[in-house]
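Can anyone check this?
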Amino acid sequence: MKSRSKLLKVGEVSEWLNVSRSTIYKWVHEGEFPEPVVLGQDDGKRSASRWKEDEVVDWLESRPRGVQE
């Protein structure tokens, strides 16, 4: 059985990571952050982006820890 991941809005992700919404979209565009799931039509007018919680957790756990030089 596949695990079901909660879908998070961009505001929830940005608040969780303490970064701006535009930073989330920038990271996605740069390939540095998981791609969102697009709900509805992908025309930008009637669509909504959501991120799978487990993918965000995996991304976060893969980040370096400690002071970076």
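Reply from J.R.: I decoded it. The chain has three helices and three strands.
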